[in-house]
Amino acid sequence: MSKLFFISDIHGSLYYLKKVLEIYESEKADYIIILGDELYHGARNPLPKDYNPKEVAELLNTYKNKIIAVRGNCDSEVDEMVLEYPMMAPYSIVLYNGRRLFLTHGHIYDRDKLPNLSSGDAIIYGHIHVPLAEKQNNIFVINPGSITFPKEGNPNSYGILENNIFKIKGLEGNVIKEISFSE
């Protein structure tokens, strides 16, 4: 069974991307799932630490065969011209141990506007920069938070899905939230 590594809302920060890719390597995950907002900081955000969209794209491209990505509200068509993997779809679906994982950024679908999912499926999204792991009407609703701009006093964070357990971790490795798909 694959070990999946989830990140969202890089917003062009070379500093945080390098940190999280070191964690990806140490976690020995099989794939990186990027839930949007890869290269640009967006008009509502300040410039992130070590803002460098060009180098962020170059670094992400070194992992192109391991990335599954969706489009965020700050992503544009020009981004796909420099990124060497598809990232313009508003959502992607991954099958994981008999359930659908609906991957999206969160500006179209989220916990308040769920797509059509079956009992036991999951929606995993970014956008709000707040870690979330809950069950809503037998649908798993998960947000790994943001690696660059966490909100509501949360730490910079990412997600790991392994053996039917989704853990949201701070960059120091501490578990912030956890949910089991066996529940």
Automatic annotation (TrEMBL):
Q: Per the record's keyword annotation, is Metal-binding included, yes or no?
A: yes
Which source organism? Clostridium pasteurianum BC1
Q: Keyword Transcription on this protein?
A: no
> Which Enzyme Commission numbers does its entry carry?
3.1.4.-
This protein's source sits in the domain of life called: Bacteria
- Domain named Calcineurin-like phosphoesterase is located at 3-162
Q: What is this protein called?
A: Phosphoesterase
Q: Which keywords does UniProt give here?
A: Metal-binding
| Record family assignment | Belongs to the metallophosphoesterase superfamily. YfcE family.
Alphabetized InterPro entries for the sequence: Calcineurin-like_PHP_lpxH, Metallo-depent_PP-like, MPP_YfcE, Phosphodiesterase_MJ0936/Vps29
Q: Which cofactor does it need?
A: a divalent metal cation
Q: Which Gene3D superfamilies match?
A: 3.60.21.10
Which molecular-function annotations from GO does this UniProt entry contain? Answer: hydrolase activity; metal ion binding
